[in-house]
Amino acid sequence: MEPIHRSETTKNDVEIKGAFKQFGTNVVLNGIDLEVKQGELLTLLGPSGCGKSTTLNLIAGFLDADRGEVHIKGNNVTKVPPYKRDLGMVFQTYSLFPHMTVYENLSFGLKLRKVGKSEQKKKISKALELVKMSGLENRYPRELSGGQRQRVAISRALVVEPELLLLDEPLSNLDAKLRHELRTEIKRLQKEIGVTTIFVTHDQEEALSMSDRVVVMNAGKIEQISTPTDIYNHPKTEFVFQFIGKSNCFEGNVTASDNRKITVLIGSDITHVDADNIMGDDGSLIPGDAVKIYIRPEKLEIISANGTDSPPPDFHLARITQINYLGTSWEINVLLQGKSIQVLTSAFDSSWHIGSEVFIGWSPSEVMLVKK
Ligand SMILES: Nc1ncnc2c1ncn2[C@@H]1O[C@H](COP(=O)(O)OP(=O)(O)OP(=O)(O)O)[C@@H](O)[C@H]1O
């Protein structure tokens, strides 16, 4: 299989414009606009029922939108049937033909495309080599493990050299170790071939580790489209912050704000948040506004209080309620202003125990804020 050479890397291979889909009274897609760039691995991520598979099925042509358009490679394919869209698809459940050998499964699509026998042989051999399945051509699907079947399914999708590869939760039936292994392989394979790929998952770790860009969906809408690091570190909405990774939340009130910093009173403690870190579209904040601030456990700093009453600037007095050793780090629960907060740290002080007083600090650039 030859790598796909792209002359322009910024061109879009897929565009969805204003897609709206309703099943009965259930609005499943509520105005989706999406652009997938040439050669990228884009992941649709979101909770069950948010519309990920529906979006993928619109691109594949298995479903029609009530409103909106789908463009592939610049062509409006909204009314084009699936078999004319030149796609490779892999589903969650093994979709191999059970009565056909691995070789026959792979040759099926090639025969339909009238590829000659010797060319078929070459292509199948390469496609199986890519997924490390050479030598198993004569096995039937029932003679393969779950992971091997998904490798064959991926290989079968790729052997026809599709314009687009669509993967709908292809790893969710596999155990954790295999999932991890195949995740790495799909990523390698995708970059090696350069085929534009849309991947559906509800597993945030899978999405963050594999993708060039992640689309976070919620209730039929797109919350954010960005790189994995941006999605994690600069979520645009409260939903994205809470859905991705772990979070701590405090409630407080704005006491001052300018275009650089917001000052917030949490209980009797003052804290600061960078003005760039406001989530949502609620406009500017004024003193008195009720807000929530969110911070990830690993962004918190924890230091010993050592009997001192007043914390250093931007640190807050807290009391340890639980300590869990995780192998490479410690998960420490503390009570801060009456709220239970989780801290993840690799700098553990052996004098800490349940009941120890500690100071917890964070940087204004690490905290996200949303108006209540
Ligand atoms: N053919 C259909 N008829 C009626 N409702 C449907 C149909 N297909 C999907 N739905 C509904 O549309 C909503 C979105 O489904 P979709 O499969 O797109 O979600 P998803 O985000 O892929 O979820 P999951 O992770 O559980 O697969 C769900 O409420 C689902 O029950």
From TrEMBL:
InterPro entries: AAA+_ATPase, ABC_SmlMolc_Importer, ABC_transporter-like_ATP-bd, ABC_transporter-like_CS, Mo/tungstate-bd_C_term_dom, P-loop_NTPase, Transp-assoc_OB_typ2
Gene3D superfamilies, A to Z: 2.40.50.100, P-loop containing nucleotide triphosphate hydrolases (3.40.50.300)
PROSITE patterns for this protein: ABC_TRANSPORTER_1 (PS00211), ABC_TRANSPORTER_2 (PS50893)
Keyword annotations of the record: ATP-binding, Nucleotide-binding, Transport
Source domain of life: Bacteria
Stretches assigned to the ABC transporter domain: 14-244
Keyword Nucleotide-binding belongs to the record: yes
GO MF term set: ABC-type transporter activity; ATP binding; ATP hydrolysis activity
One GO cellular component term noted in the UniProt record for this chain: ATP-binding cassette (ABC) transporter complex
Keyword Nucleotide-binding (UniProt): yes
Name recorded for this polypeptide: Fe3+/spermidine/putrescine ABC transporter ATP-binding protein
